[in-house]
Amino acid sequence: EVHLVESGGGSVQPGGSLRLSCVASGFTFSRSEMLWARQAPGKGLEWVSGIDTDGKTYYPTNVKGRFTISRDNGRNTVYLQMNSLKPEETAVYYCGRGTRELVVQTTGTPGGDDWGRGTQVTVSS
């Protein structure tokens, strides 16, 4: 059974940092591309980073230079280091198994085997 469990969310002031973790089980992690996405209240799912099986990383323009995705295949864990956070980045952050296409295909709240349950990130003064 596939499990993706996020942690590390919380409240932070604008300009602050957080590091999210996602522990995976039930599949061959090292052979899977992984991603992070977020969903703000009342908004759609937004892709924020991806990492392939070789460790190559991908980011949209609005987070590039501030967010860093990484993976530890020995721990079956993918991380998201977020710096210089902004209030508009308040959202539930989800770990996903797959490529950016997974985000495109997902409607509503992420669910099923390819998504974790999410972790809340609140950026506020």
How would you portray this structure in words?
This protein has 125 residues and is mainly beta. The protein has 1 helix and 10 strands. Strands 2-10-9-4-5-6 form a 6-stranded mixed β-sheet. Strands 1-3-8-7 form a 4-stranded antiparallel β-sheet, with no helix packed on it. A hairpin with a 4-residue loop joins strand 7 (67-72) and strand 8 (77-82). The longest helix has 6 residues, at 100-105. The model has no long low-confidence stretch (mean pLDDT 97).
Topology:
Elements: E1 3-7, E2 10-12, E3 18-25, E4 34-39, E5 45-51, E6 57-58, E7 67-72, E8 77-82, E9 91-97, H1 100-105, E10 119-123
Gist?
5% of the residues lie in helices and 44% in strands. With 125 residues, it is mainly beta. It is globular.
Give keywords.
125 residues, mainly beta, six-stranded mixed beta sheet, four-stranded antiparallel beta sheet, 10 strands, globular
- Tell me the β content: 35-45%
Q: How is the main sheet built?
A: 6 strands, mixed
Quote the distance from N terminus to C terminus. Answer: 40 Å
SSE order: EEEEEEEEEHE
Structural class: mainly beta
Strand order in space, largest sheet:
2-10-9-4-5-6
Q: Give the number of DSSP strands.
A: 10
Pick out the low-confidence regions: none
Helix content: under 10%
Quaternary: single chain
Radius of gyration: 13 Å
Number of helices in the DSSP assignment:
1
Provide mean pLDDT, rounded. Answer: 97
The general outline is: globular
